[in-house]
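Posting for a labmate who doesn't have an account.
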Amino acid sequence: MPAGIRPTQNVVRAAIFDLLGHDLSGLSFLELFAGSGAVGLEAISRGADEVVMVEHNDLNARTIRENGELLGIDLGGNFSLIHADAFSTVKRLSEEARRFDIVFFDPPYGRKLAKKILNLLDRSDILHPQSWVLVQVESSEKLEIPETFTVFTQRRYGSSYLTLLQRLGRISNKALR
């Protein structure tokens, strides 16, 4: 675990998979601001067909690779690490017509990044109708949710909130071409 990151607490990680279900077979999972990769690696262990972890920080990305190796997980093919900025990666994944069933993100606190990522997800095509989005933010941050999402549940864990959103049906601009 690199110094200076705030890993997703075990209780929150357990809550994530209690909400999503313990068997992610057949699902694709995107973790933005992956940190140590604990949530994405957990998604792999729960059978997700595809897991993409996105981490910008060099040390954190190296740690994710090392943690994958320790667990015997090859981060190539269906399980991957993208060492890049979350915002540019979402845009690129949208351009590549990639879609995800579940997106989880726990951005660094104090920068209002959750609002920016939610707005970007709202404008991008990486979610399909009924995709789930899980957001962890510090409890003092007011999460502004775009109209294309509905709040399924919100729970407090220590100094943070975990909010589960579902993407409402929307016709993609690309689908109209």
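Reply:
Got it, the structure tokens are right above this. The chain has one domain: 25-176.
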